[in-house]
């Protein structure tokens, strides 16, 4: 989706990816098959580029630091990526800078769980590598400790959760105006404190008392912003390109109320779109299908999404239920 926006601007794009079946590879000037964590490969790739950006945090920061030192523009900056790719560093940064977040500590292994002053229920997050709910565990009682992660983790108090939101440039619906303004102010303050260039998603919890607590940050295009392709004047992808290329930022005006339904690979079979499913989805007014073309084999992996954009929220919610029914029936 970022590539499509780049091609609309006429940019010459190169991609480094560890997947030989990368779905964007056929559409770029140069495709480099290498792991984004491979320092030598990332450095060699970046040396041939004017600007380097990311679509995930799990990259070689050492390579990005070398590139920056030699004058290559890297966005978001390497120091931002280094901090955000480690949930322990991220938690410490939020606490040290006075941002509201769940109380927690960084622990080195399971043995530290027995000595903590945090009471059950607790949330355990692996410091590195987690995404889309992976690497997160709820510890309700001491009996759950046997299955806890090994290695460095963040241990937090469990939040009495009311809902979860994220702030990019477009707020979520159904949230009180005062809470939205507070969330936007928090996100701006974080971005300014980081000094980030590019795109920043800030995930937040709202607890049952109405408190806003920062969960974590993502310095890249975010799942919660995919709807901006259809529902906002400037999508998150185009806005990122404008920011890192020092172009005027686009309007963030919302055109239509919207919602998104994710399509995840099931546990039992490969995720595919049948002709019947495509036909049914395309018959639904206001529904926009995005299928990523990924190869299967990983249960729970996001394979595509459908955005619903219509004039009223009631129409969006009704159509969302139609889309969900089609996806669940397959």
Automatic annotation (TrEMBL):
Molecular function per GO: ATP binding; catalytic activity; metal ion binding
Pathway participation: Purine metabolism
Keyword Nucleotide-binding set for record: yes
GO biological process: purine nucleotide biosynthetic process
Domain ATP-grasp: 91-142, 175-245
Superkingdom: Eukaryota
Keywords: ATP-binding, Nucleotide-binding, Purine biosynthesis
Membrane-spanning intervals of the chain: none
GO annotations of cellular component type: cytosol
UniProt xrefs under Pfam families: ATP-grasp, PurK_C, RS_preATP-grasp-like
InterPro entries recorded: ATP-grasp, ATP-grasp_carboxylate-amine, ATP_grasp_subdomain_1, PreATP-grasp_dom_sf, PurK_C, PurT/PurK_preATP-grasp, Rudment_hybrid_motif
Stored PANTHER family: PHOSPHORIBOSYLAMINOIMIDAZOLE CARBOXYLASE, PURINE BIOSYNTHESIS PROTEIN 6/7, PUR6/7
Designated name of the protein: ATP-grasp domain-containing protein
Organism the protein comes from: Rhynchospora breviuscula
